[in-house]
Specification:
32% of the residues lie in helices and 20% in strands. It is α/β, with parallel strands linked by helices.
Length: 157
């Protein structure tokens, strides 16, 4: 069954702290160009490290396409800082400690216990155009996101 946000505006009225403790309003970049918002379970875990490093290694593609890339988990800003520094991540990690973004984006838990791993691909108008939900296909999130932002760049008005 398709995600309920597919072809609808992405939630914007959410403000979360990044790894530097600064507030980031999702509305400040959603609708300003293509965006990739990926939810992941836990800083420093095997799958999340693999996923985040794959995004890091493809970061230039997102930059070239004028896309914003943001990772979100329930970890604290301090945890995000350690993770981003250790893995040399060039993009913001947002701390959703109260679960407000997860709720707004309707990211459910796997087996009712593991926080979801879901990537939202959002066009330049702020509309969710694709949702990739896979707990185990770490690289699939990146592959799908890269294809999306390249397509967005190619069709830019």
């Amino acid at each position: 069954m398709p995600h309920s946000l597919l072809n609808k505006p992405a939630p914007k009225n959410i403000s979360l702290k990044n790894q530097d403790g600064e507030s980031v309003d999702l509305g400040s970049f959603l609708g300003q160009g293509p965006a990739v918002v990926f939810f992941y379970p836990k800083d420093e875990s095997y799958g999340c490290t693999k996923q985040a490093c794959s995004f890091r290694d493809s970061y230039q593609v997102f930059q070239d396409a004028g896309a914003t890339l943001v990772g979100i988990s329930s970890d604290s800003s301090d945890s995000h800082k350690r993770f981003a520094t250790a893995q040399k991540l060039q993009f913001p990690l947002l701390a959703d400690v109260k679960g407000e973004a997860k709720k707004a984006f309707e990211v459910s838990k796997t087996f009712g216990i593991i926080p979801g791993r879901v990537t939202f691909l959002i066009d330049r108008e702020g509309i969710v155009r694709d949702v990739f939900d896979s707990q185990m296909d770490f690289n699939g999130h990146v592959t799908r996101a890269v294809s999306f932002v390249e397509e967005q760049a190619a069709t830019k008005a």
